[in-house]
Amino acid sequence: MNDELLQVLRRPPRERADAARNRSRVLEAAGRLFAEGGVAALTVDAVAREAGVGKGTVFRRFGDKSGLVSALLDQRERELQEAVVFGAPPLGPGAPPRERARAFFDAYLTYLADHLDLVRLSETASPGARFRIGAYVFWHRHLALLCADRPDPDHLAHVLLGMVAADLNTELLAQDMGWDRIRAGVASAVDRLVDPSYSP
Amino acid sequence: MNDELLQVLRRPPRERADAARNRSRVLEAAGRLFAEGGVAALTVDAVAREAGVGKGTVFRRFGDKSGLVSALLDQRERELQEAVVFGAPPLGPGAPPRERARAFFDAYLTYLADHLDLVRLSETASPGARFRIGAYVFWHRHLALLCADRPDPDHLAHVLLGMVAADLNTELLAQDMGWDRIRAGVASAVDRLVDPSYSP
DNA sequence: TAGACAAACGGACTTGGGTCCGTTTACTCT
DNA sequence: AGAGTAAACGGACCCAAGTCCGTTTGTCTA
């Protein structure tokens, strides 16, 4: 096995220049359209037109609409992810699980409140889209680790994340439940679910 | 205010004969198509064609696709609802809240396992459809009553129902989590969330 | 720098949910 | 029975997501 072959195996061929250019053009166009007209303005056709590319290009770059919107949100979400992995406690490592979980949900709800429409779009663009998003998998792992001493951390983590589904919270807001009340409800459930010995 | 006016106020004008006939024709057609080809065969156009009615008729009768599928599920779900309201404990009235809640989730998971595809279709046909379905509202009230002594029964009931969202459970099955494991996870969460004094 | 090839391109096309509106039909009241 | 009316009808139409495939373009090698 020669070096060349090894190299090929190692490096996934890097993105062509035009592809990279179009990726950012599309993202910028999407950002612009959303800023002007909200989620209603975010149709794939409109984004493609605004970006000056064909519609096929958008789908090749981002897979589907959900992928496009997730990419738009990527930056913000990445910051939260880094804070969880490298940041100070209680969000970052060091604090006891229940407190880390609470800190996470608190931070995530802030993020959700700031971007509810986009997150909802990315989660409901197609059935099951929510679970395919990279960030979901990441949060799921994080929570499962925090629940490691519970009977089924894997299932429990899914249940916990269910509380911050964009669709659910859109509904709660529509029913006049404010973010403060949602925060309190989530916090209380987190306490009871994450910490086996908790009972206030 | 005369009698006639009172009567008009009281009785919502009953369904016209042709309307009723078409309602059942459409439901039968939908049932047939689903039996033959599963959810993939359940397009509104196909249902309308099979029923021998226009597409507009389907939408007038059922509102949207989600409504049509909910109507298909109605029978089964009604049985469960009756068991909850009039049946024997622990599903029906009489047992302590935690046990009623457990019995409900157990029964609902059976129902879900039997009709997962259809329930998923009805819940994800459009964003937020889940919360607009009559049954959702019913279950929500039931659970909120069972949690009456918790700080925020309304929010908590939504969280509990999140655990049996068809979309989530489809994903769990796809990840090789079986119904037995799902049942256990749900039961454990119900215990901890519904009963303030529970800690096994 | 030429030529080969994979990758990217783009827009016509397909599919499916949902709307619209001119026409038809079941009921009601006399 | 016959006229009036509200409701129901149906299919053409619209919109938006996602696919397909013939064409173009960047990149790598000689």
From TrEMBL, chains A, B:
DNA-binding in keyword set: yes
GO MF annotations, alphabetized: DNA-binding transcription factor activity; transcription cis-regulatory region binding
Domain HTH tetR-type positions: 20-80
Residues of the DNA-binding region: 43-62
Keywords: DNA-binding
Protein name: TetR family transcriptional regulator
Organism: Nocardiopsis sinuspersici
Record lineage: Bacteria, Bacillati, Actinomycetota, Actinomycetes, Streptosporangiales
